[in-house]
Structures are given as C-alpha cells and as structure tokens.
Write a structure and sequence with these properties.
heterodimer; A: 171 residues; alpha/beta; 7-stranded mixed β-sheet; 8 helices; 7 strands; globular; B: 427 residues; 5-stranded parallel β-sheet; 14 helices
Chain lengths: 171, 427
C-alpha cells in the first residue's frame, strides 16, 4: 500500500489561526466514542448539513498552527469517517501533526493554501511532485515534503503497519 | 562544530558524533514514561503483545508508569484500567507508581529527570523534565515505537534560545513569565523547535518555577524546553538520578534558529482568558470579574512555592462563602512538606478544600463546573469544557491570584495581600 494522490473538494476552509480542532465536533462531544455519532456532529456548529454534503476524498483547508491546544482524536476520526482524505493547512501544531500522522492520515503543510482556496474548490495533491493544485484557478503551490518516517507511516497506513514493516522485514 | 544542548543529547541517544536540525534520527530513549489512560497505555500493552508478538519489553528498567489520573477511581471501569496497569508492570518488571502524585513531578522526584538524558512520554507536559536538563518529549501515540523497538524516530529540532533578563517583581511568578512568553513570541513561534532558556531570571528562579516554565512548552508550539543544569539542578538530582550521565551544556557559539531576549522587569501578574492558552492578558484588565471556583494544583503549578504564596495571601483570612477553592499539591512529597511547614493548616482554616495529589481536577473529572460558572486556575488549559460544562469559563493565573480571587469571589490582584503579609512579618 502506498500513499495515493488526492483529488477532492475543499469541504471547508478554516479561516482561524491556532485552530483548536476540538471545536470540530464540539468540546461537549469529545468523549463520544461511537464514530457514526461523532461524524453526524462534525461541524454542526458551523453548518448543520455539513456531514451530509461531504464526498469521499474531500479535503479540509486550514490556517497557521492548525490543531493548537490539546488535540484530541475524535475530530479527525469523525472527519475520516465522513470521507475527508487530508487536511491541507498553512502549518500545523506539532502534537496534532504527530498524532494524526501516526494514524496514517495526511496533514499537508502548504504555505499560501488558505488564501488560494475557496470552499468547494477542487484540489489535487501530487506526492511525487509535492504540488497542490487548485483546479478552479489553476494555481499550483508547493507542499512541504514529509520526513522519511512520516512518509513511511502515511504509505503504510499508520504507525502500527509501518512499525510492522520495520520490525518484521518482508522476506 | 559547536552544538546546542538538544543536539548533544540527541546525538548521544542516537549513537552519533553529532546531529543537525532537520535530520531524521532513530534515538534510544533513556526513559519511557507514561501514565495510565484509556486508549493509550491499555492499547500499547495490547498492541505490543498482539500486533508485534512481544511478550516482554526489552530493558524494562527504562520504563516507568504512573497512576495519577482517575485517582481515586469513581467507576468500576476506571479501577479496571488501573488493574491492567498494575498487572502489566508486575509481569514486565516495570515500576508502577501509584498515588504518589502527578507523574511529571514524581518522575523528577524519582530521578528520571537526569541531566543529559532523553525521555519520552505520550503526554507533552513531560517537557518539564527539561528544567533539569533532560530532553523530554511528548510523542503522543508514537511512543508505541519505543515499546516495540527500544527507539524513537524523530526529526532533530532547531533550537530557539530565549534569554530572560531583569528581575521579577513581587507577586509575579514563573506562570506569568511563561504566558508572557506566549504573548511576546506567539503561540506558534516555536513550532517543532526546542526552546533553551537562560538568563538571570532563570538563574535566580527556583527549580519549581523552572518546572512550571518547561512544562508548558507545547503552548509555544515547542517540542520541548530545556535549561542547562546549574548548582541548584545538580543539588536536586544528586543521589536521585537513575542513570549516570555527564550533564550537557550548550556550546557558547552554538548555532540557534533564533535568539530572543525578553526583559521581565516590568512584567505584572497576567491572566489567560478563555478559550485558548494563547490569550495572555494583563491581570489588571480583568480584576473584578466574578469567579466561583478556584483550582491551585496541576503539573504546571501546585508545588511548594505555589502553596507558600497562597498561604501568605490567605493566612488569617477567610475565602468568600460559596467560593470553592481546591488546593491539590502536585505530589505526596510536596503535600507532606507543606504539612510540615504548616501551610496545609493555613489553607484549610481559610476555607480551602485540600486534596491528595491527582490529575483529575485539571480536566474537570473532579470539582466539575456547571453552566455559567467561572474558575481561576493554575491548571494547564482553559479550553471550554476542560473543567466541566462547555458553558463554563477558565481563567489561568498564578497561585497567588487564585488565592486572592478566592478571598474576593472576583479576579483579584494578590499584591496588596502579599504586601500586607510581608509588612506584618517585618513588624
């Protein structure tokens, strides 16, 4: 398995810097463990029918230091369940970045992405050329490449399969 | 080639002559530290065995576990988690420290804060071991790698040197200094970097104050924060350190990502307003705001100097009727020392509720707030819902401010109380 190039719509553009991702499901809901229940609540404070409108492969766009604070896992669990394939942001908070990368979920640092994207725009991410392209405007931005282990985790689908590859080398 | 403390510690842990920022390395942590928490330790134990077939972790002497959350348990499920932790520790030969205090503090007391050591945890507040010159890093679920492989892969962070100059005014504490740093430098200023702290303010600061500063590193975006060991550090760790290592110091001409100098001479007490730890404000702009509960504790504050200053404010006074003041010493050792000093008596007589050490007040599992309530807190975070209802509010401040606010039922400046107490002593 390997990381596949992405193509999806910007399901949401978070305008805020230092965005606390707990707000995605609402702090009151972060202890919910049922992923369907969480997914139904995602972004309900922003747009009541957000969950219904997401298509598999859609993307989220964020600002600087996205995921600041104590980033709990329910927000992105909910988003993955809805079909969100990645978050592309100006930059990420380290704890959030490490946590989601270890889940095999791509967090793509891409300076300039927020200003270059409107909600609903179709975007592609090419992991070989490190390019993010806005298909509406034609604008291309460069993403910041992953480290070897980050890329390894994303290729493998998360920390556990990645470690299995390292600990038990394929014969 | 000159190196920062971070580069030296990581180079040793990676078994290399040197490492450079941006380079990915596989390093062997000297210590793998964790507290039991659902979805973390219980899952690590299971995955280590079931996914990797590891019946026994190698070098169990590097591991240490703390039971500091859900203490005491309030539901059978919580106690079940603790049983799993105790059983795993016994089976693996890994020490489990229970009811001794908040793990990040107890880790230092037990000698896991060895200067020059590399320590990992899933929780980022472990960075407070940096007060002792330990590179301590919160890798979240990435810590599983250390359970399985004895190592951790990480990118060597660049280092930001922050020099704190001047002299702190009375009533201004490490807590104020940290949040002032967030205000001046910005909450994203040190993303993926390490902060090495130095300067006359650090030299004069207690070990406890340094722990407070280093433990909050994540709110600058930093991977961790470090202070070069001095005589105070070496006195503290002597006879405690779990392993023999030479302390590590930065080279005078080490290369830093940036150097920031902050003069704190005119700094006054601050308050961090909801909903984010990024919202540092001057206390004077918020005095008079009605508050209903106060929390003095957590891994960030709740040490002896915090209890002492609170007792100074509260001695011979009574807190507002109806105000709930919760004082939770950070460790058993601190609680015992506070009792010997008579601080507990002063706090109790003023109307405080004293609890044995526990992490549970910090995240609202105990002393939960209801809709519309407001807290002054020395906890780590002020996100709505952190201490109960999402419609309650948390104002982060230093221990003296918590105490003064408890007297008035409003956010209050502790300095008049401290001045009165200090004049009383002089007279």
């Amino acid at each position: 398995m390997s990381l596949v190039n992405l193509r999806g719509r910007a399901a949401w553009v978070f305008e805020e810097d230092d965005y606390d991702i707990d707000l995605i499901v609402g702090v009151r809901n972060i202890k919910i463990t049922d992923v369907k229940e969480l997914a139904a609540l995602a972004m309900a404070d922003y747009l009541p029918d957000f969950a219904a409108g997401v298509q598999k492969g859609d993307l989220l766009i964020g600002g600087h230091n996205f995921g600041y604070g104590h980033p709990h896992y329910p927000a992105m669990r909910a988003m993955r369940h809805l079909g969100i394939a990645a978050v592309i942001a100006e930059s990420f908070s380290p704890g959030f970045f490490r946590g989601e990368t270890s889940m095999g979920f791509p967090l793509v640092s891409c300076p300039g992405i927020r200003a270059a994207t409107a909600r609903g725009d179709a975007l592609t991410v090419d992991w070989d050329t490190n390019e993010v392209r806005n298909l509406r405007s034609g604008q291309t931005l460069m993403l910041q490449p992953f480290s070897e282990s980050e890329r390894g985790m994303l290729d493998a689908g998360g920390l556990i399969p990645y470690l299995k590859r390292r600990v038990v080398p394929a014969s | 080639m000159p190196q920062t403390m971070t580069e030296k510690i990581l180079a040793r842990a990676a078994g290399r002559p040197r490492v450079v920022p941006g380079e990915e390395i596989t390093a062997r942590p000297d210590f793998v530290i964790a507290y039991d928490f659902p979805g973390y330790t219980d899952v690590f134990f299971k995955e280590t065995r079931e996914d990797f077939g590891i019946e026994k972790v190698s070098s169990p002497e590097r591991f240490v576990l703390f039971i500091d959350h859900m203490v005491p348990a309030t539901a059978p499920k919580e106690e079940e988690l603790h049983k799993i932790t105790r059983a795993w520790g016994k089976e693996q030969g890994v020490p489990v420290h229970e009811r001794e205090g908040i793990g990040h503090q107890v880790a230092a007391e037990l000698g896991y804060a060895t200067p020059g050591a590399f320590a990992v945890h899933f929780d980022g507040h472990v960075s407070q071991l940096g007060a002792f010159g330990t590179f301590a890093f919160g890798a979240r679920k990435g810590v599983l790698e250390s359970f399985v492989t004895e190592t951790l892969t990480l990118t060597v962070p660049a280092t930001v040197k922050v020099e704190l100059t001047g002299t702190l005014q009375p009533g201004v504490m490490a807590r104020d200094v940290f949040h002032h740093m967030v205000r001046v430098m910005g909450p994203a200023s040190c993303r993926f970097k390490v902060v090495e702290l130095c300067g006359p303010v650090i030299d004069a600061m207690s070990i406890e104050g340094r722990q407070t500063l280093c433990g909050q590193a994540m709110f600058l975006g930093a991977t961790t924060m470090l202070i070069a060991p001095d005589a105070k550090t070496l006195d503290y760790v002597r006879g405690r350190s779990k392993i023999a290592l030479d302390p590590v110091y930065p080279d005078a001409d080490a290369s830093y990502d940036s150097v920031v100098t902050i003069d704190v001479s005119t700094l006054e007490p601050i308050v961090v307003i909801p909903p984010s730890p990024a919202n540092t404000r001057d206390l004077k702009d918020y005095t008079g705001v009605e508050v209903h509960t106060g929390y003095l504790g957590s891994c960030a504050s709740g040490r002896l100097e915090d209890l002492r200053i609170a007792a100074e404010v509260l001695r011979g006074r009574r807190i507002q009727p109806g105000f709930q003041l919760h004082v939770v010493p950070t460790s058993k050792a601190i609680m015992a020392a506070a009792a010997r000093e008579g601080l507990i008596e002063v706090l109790v007589e003023a109307g405080a509720f004293i609890s044995s050490p526990s992490c549970d007040y910090c995240f609202g599992r105990i002393a939960t707030m209801s809709d519309g309530q407001r807290a002054v807190s020395t906890g780590t975070l002020n996100t709505p819902g952190r201490m109960g209802s999402v419609d309650s509010e948390i104002y982060i401040c230093n221990a003296a401010v918590v105490a003064a606010s408890a007297l008035e039922g409003r956010i209050a400046d502790p300095r008049p109380y401290l001045a009165a107490a200090r004049e009383g002593v002089a007279a």
